[in-house]
Model the fold of this input.
Amino acid sequence: MNRRTFCSSLLALSAAPAVAAEPWPSRPLRIITAGAGVTDIRARWLAERLGKVLGQPVLVDNKPGAGGLISMEAGARSTPDGYTIVVVHQGTIAVNPFIYASLPYDPFRDFTPLTRMGFGPLVFVVNPALGARTVAEFLALARSRTTPLTFGSPGVGTPPHLAGELFKREAGIAATHVPYKSGAQAATDLVGGHLHFCIEGIIQMRPHIQAGRVLALATTGAQRVASMPEVPTLREAGLPDYQYNGWAGLALPAATPSQIVDRLYMAIAQVLGGSEAREWFAANGAETGLIPPVEFAAFMRAEHDKLGKIIRAAGITAE
Done:
């Protein structure tokens, strides 16, 4: 090709119409979660309905372990194109930064907040073989033992762990924390008699409660749960200063285009803002907690600062 032909080719290319950008979404999306627990159950419920709104399948990619470090690192390293959504929660945003010397992600720099996906109390459950039918009986038993009771959680710094540590402090009892890779594993060991108690999400423990495999002694919020009216709060049961609400949310890798953030939030709001979502979350002792991205960003920062003070005061560190 001579110089004149080459230059003519360049001019022809520059004059050609620009190729249209790929429409979004044009392929399946994924939601990264950490472990088979409450957030995974909620993510799968949302994924099924969000896929119908977006016209593309939404798959759940479960990456358990290390208190959410694995799932958060995977999310932070994902391409910011709107096809990867990350489940975040108290542990990954407001706890891990204070209990680990270093993190493979930054909870604010590496993510763009979307919205909350669940907000509400946890439930205090025990193995029936323990012999305690009320919180008062449980505390009397705990204080009479020469060895501490054990409780499980999906990992160090997760909401069930923090709720358990707060319970120990308010009740003035000793208890040994046993971290697992998921809430489901902790629940299995509680049912099997390898743990004495757990403070877990209601949706996670409801099947075991209904089957009589565990006993629900109390919930952790300020008021009783409408779907479990017979179960008192820990405040009512003798711990007047105890209150703990767990939350989970959704975020995107940092630098995701703002127009995709807006479109995805509107699609999620279409699901979480409907009556089906309100009824489903309420039946499991929670609310959707839907708020816009800007408000969720402020909420995440406030939780980070609030829980950071509690963790420093309690001296909680990664095990």
